[in-house]
Amino acid sequence: MKLQKAFALLSATIFLAGCSNDDSSTPMNSTAPVGSVTYNKDVKSIIDNNCIVCHAAVPTNGAPISLVTYAQVKEAVLKRSLIIRISLENGNSVLMPKGGPRMPQETIDIVKQWEKDGLFEK
């Protein structure tokens, strides 16, 4: 009987260990560590004040995408070079916001830090 209990305990331990999330790129907790830059607290207002005029729910002025939601902005950082586009120098034809002027470096640095901190929403 003791052997059966030991086997059952061992089996349960192995089973539970196999259920862990080993993908470190996906945070287990969607809330950012204290002091981190987050979308809701820091980045949303930057996007709203500088990008939404063209990147609205229905994009205008030739904008190819909407930047209204957290998911859309995160996707733009990860797959559409948003940080590169806002970091270009005045006069570059692909600088965003379109036609410039370039956002202040301090503002760009907040978006860069958001990416570095893990692109947390809140």
TrEMBL record:
Organism: Flavobacterium anhuiense
Keyword field contains Iron: yes
Signal peptide (UniProt feature, chain positions): 1-17
GO MF annotation list: electron transfer activity; heme binding; metal ion binding
Keyword Ion transport: no
PROSITE patterns: CYTC (PS51007), PROKAR_LIPOPROTEIN (PS51257)
Protein name: Cytochrome c domain-containing protein
Keywords: Heme, Iron, Metal-binding, Signal
Domain Cytochrome c: start-end pairs: 30-119
Domain of life per record: Bacteria
